[in-house]
Amino acid sequence: MMACHAPLPARAGNALAPLRGAIASCLAATAPSRELDAAIGKSIFPALADLEELEPGIWRQQDGNRVRALNYTRTWSAAASLVPAGCWIEHDCLDVIVVSAEDRSRGTHDILPIALCLAALRARMRAADAGMAPANQSEEI
């Protein structure tokens, strides 16, 4: 069972926009990238948007310390850290599925860590927004 205790985005629709954007960027990705890692990081940790970005995926805090996004799109272990607490990871052919007691969120991509990012980010959307489409319907985000 892979779980992460990272905070979920706030319920307000605008607060979920970075998460939706990260999902859309994952869907469009053709390769792992630090830019995409940075977008994913900011969608999970919204306070990063308030920090000075030194380069994609690296920010400077007010005290001078640096914060670095994990290589979510390149490594399975980093992508797995996005899985919400209480969820687990399954595989179904080329799909990666993040499963909770209530839902299943799929991620399909040629690059397996990005597929896991998609599934984990979708699971976070479902947890943050109870109004999401049921898991058995098409996931457009």
Task: Give structural notes.
With 141 residues, the protein is α+β, with helices and mostly antiparallel strands. Helices cover 32% and strands 18% of the residues. The protein has four helices and six strands; from the N terminus they run ααβββαβββα. It has helices at residues 17-28, 34-44, 76-80, 112-128; strands at residues 52-55, 58-60, 66-68, 88-92, 95-99, 104-108. Strands 1-2-3 form a three-stranded antiparallel sheet, with no helix packed on it. It has a three-stranded antiparallel sheet with strand order 4-5-6. A hairpin with a 5-residue loop joins β2 (58-60) and β3 (66-68). α1 (17-28) packs antiparallel against α2 (34-44) and α1 (17-28) runs antiparallel to α4 (112-128). The longest helix has 17 residues, at 112-128. The radius of gyration is 14 Å and the shape is globular. Mean pLDDT is 86; it is low at 1-12 and 131-140.
Tell me roughly what share of residues is in helical segments: 25-40%
Secondary structure category: alpha+beta
Please trace the helix and strand order, writing H or E for each element.
HHEEEHEEEH
User: How are the strands of the largest sheet arranged?
Assistant: 1-2-3
How many DSSP helices? 4
Rounded mean pLDDT is 86
What low-confidence regions span 5 or more consecutive residues with pLDDT below 50? 1-12, 131-140
